[in-house]
Amino acid sequence: MKLNLPEGIHLLHGADYNPDQWLDRPDILKRDIELMKEAHMNCVSVGIFAWARLEPKEGVYEFDWLEQIIGELYQNGIYTILATPSGAKPLWMSEKYEEIRRMSDHMVRDWSGERHNHCYTSPYYREKVRQIDGALARRFGKHPGVILWHLSNEYGGVCWCPLCQKAFRGWLQKKYGTLEQLNQQWWTTFWSHTYTSWEQIHAPVANGERGTHGLWLDWKRFTTDQVVDFMREESKAVRAEAPELPVTTNFMNYFTEYNYFKFKNDLDIVSWDSYPQWKAGDNGDQAVSFALWHDVMRSLKKQPFLLMESTPSATNWSPVSRLKRPGMHLAASMQAVAHGSDSVQYFQFRKSRGASEKFHGAVVDHYGGSDTREFRDVEALGRRLLEIGEVQGSNVKAEAALVLDVENLWAIEGAAGPRNCGMHYLETLQAHYKALWKMGVPVDVVDEECELSGYKLVIAPMLYLLRAGFEQKLRDFVGQGGTLVGTYHTGLVNENDLCYLGGWPGAGLMDLFGVWHETTDALYDDEKNSILMEDGRRYETSELSALIHLKGARTLGTYGEDFYQGEPAFTVNEFGRGKAYYLAARADEDFYRDLYRGLVKELEVKHAAEDELPEGVEACLRETEERRYLFLQNFSGREAEVKLIGAWERVDTGEPVKQAVLTGYDALTLRSSSK
């Protein structure tokens, strides 16, 4: 189900709005609407933390104030994204029903406080959530001012209570069937940890079993499944009363406690909260990091997403709450749109007067006026979104894919060795991604359950854990003409974290890459090695060096130092109609730049820039059947010039552009009439 925007609304511009904090100040509520219109806002998210106002006593709903707010917003052309309040329960509930309060991994029951202090398994909590969600849907589901359901808020956290432990055992019984099968797949004969009854199984609590990696991995999977099931129940409750409204929930940046790929089928629209830590000067690396996560969110459903939260100024929870430099709000916000967002929204519209987020950035601060730099930045961004509204609904069409598998990440983090001081899986992915980012190459981010057909280039670094069937997807992809880049620490274990026997990479990847991985040398942080290429180029390596032997592959580069000097470090294997590259060590930035520059040219992978982009500048493509849109953002703080491929014109003015010049923290949106 798509988001059906009202006539005249294209890109959404809004904020998390909490009128329940200001019900005793009607003058402020009236002024808020005036300020929203001044900032060119057309939507707000309402009710996220309002449960205590919506249900002050058990079973007593007070919705009149909310109806008045939604109605006044609608009359002024501002639409409501209506939240279910499950992310922050009222005190009367936790006081009356102890079971809804979480237990920590030390098996200590939490007191009320903070938020998300609830058990996702608790039947009572699920029922109370279902009741209020259904009541909200009956009251507001057909209101013309409500356009989208916002399920809860930033689902997060883990509960270790007896209810969750019992549910976990049931989940395991369904998965494995018998204890014998579970013991085999978890390899519990090690340390004599064999289970003889289901009741002996406990989640990996802080003072319990932590060495059985299959247990750890399955607990993470269960936790994800339990939260997905909770979210699904919320979705059912609102859909039952308002089936025509789409649903979303706001994900978090670089949050891997859950596997977000498991959520996608139960959401109509993906949304997320983006909070980069911008500094003064060059912010290229920060831009790369969040470009990658924007692409994750778009790739979940291969469609435009929503930026649900960002800050118009600073956060209050960062180690250092640095203000955005002048212009950065435009560049950062347009980055989200460039990667596929159809919205820019903020936390929050008006600063709270008290409590933990009273100093968190907002469109309107405690001063209450519009004559602030932050407000002017928001207003200017609102005007820009109006000017480029035609890009709404266009999508990113990538020919390159990066494999980011969260279950693989969990397995790497849970394993002991070879570098317990840091395996740097996500950092490694970002290093590969950055090389493509610097050329303006559109990239989809996929996991091991995704299909690979349709891509020219697939990059799968550190694929330590192979889920059943993914090895065949890789073989089919390369065999049918695709190009695969793999690395060290690939194909060591199956989905239950059991090592493959008969050589690595296992599960048929040995003949795909044409190499046998004998062992891995782990380097201390201050130690380096190198790769010497056939043409004389030399690249520095660090952290991990796989010692490999050729099994059909051809050597492109060898190690430069240590006892394995001269041994293969970078190889290529022809497999079917395609090629599989294998990088045996973590390489430096120059290696990835040269590797992907060559592959993009050889494979004719779609890219946005003629040459490598200036430092700190990104170029992104969105497309429709009729047009292409080119987004340029400058995160360097310095003037930069970009050479363009093809004929472009500014979306806002129609002015032709042959060469783009961007000032520091500037952003430009162009369109092409021909594809």
What's the quick description here?
Helix 5 (123-140) runs parallel beside helix 8 (213-241), helix 8 (213-241) runs antiparallel to helix 12 and helix 13 crosses helix 16 (589-603).
List the defining traits of the structure above.
single chain, alpha/beta, Immunoglobulin-like, Rossmann fold, 3 domains, 6-stranded parallel β-sheet, TIM Barrel
Model description:
This protein has 675 residues and is of the alpha/beta class. The protein contains 16 helices and 27 strands. The strands form five sheets. Strands 10, 11, 12, 14, 16, 17, 18, 19, 20, 21 and 22 form an eleven-stranded mixed β-sheet that branches. A hairpin with a 2-residue loop joins strand 20 (568-575) and strand 21 (578-583). Helix 8 (213-241) packs antiparallel against helix 12 (406-414). The longest helix is centred in the middle third of the chain and has 29 residues, at 213-241. It is globular and about 75 Å long. The mean pLDDT is 95.
**Discrete helix count:** 16
Number of strands: 27
How many domains make up the coordinates? 3
Provide mean pLDDT, rounded.
Answer: 95
SSE inventory with pairings:
Elements: E1 12-17, H1 26-38, E2 43-46, H2 51-54, H3 64-75, E3 79-83, H4 91-96, H5 123-140, E4 146-150, H6 162-176, H7 179-186, H8 213-241, E5 247-248, E6 250-252, E7 271-273, H9 284-301, E8 306-309, H10 328-338, E9 343-346, H11 373-387, E10 400-403, H12 406-414, H13 425-437, E11 443-446, E12 457-460, E13 465-466, H14 470-479, E14 483-487, E15 493-494, H15 509-513, E16 515-522, E17 528-533, E18 538-550, E19 554-559, E20 568-575, E21 578-583, E22 585-587, H16 589-603, E23 617-623, E24 628-634, E25 640-650, E26 656-662, E27 667-672
Parallel strand pairs: 1-2, 1-9, 2-3, 3-4, 4-5, 6-7, 7-8, 10-11, 10-12, 12-14, 13-15, 14-21
Antiparallel strand pairs: 16-18, 17-18, 17-19, 18-22, 19-20, 20-21, 23-24, 24-27, 25-26, 25-27
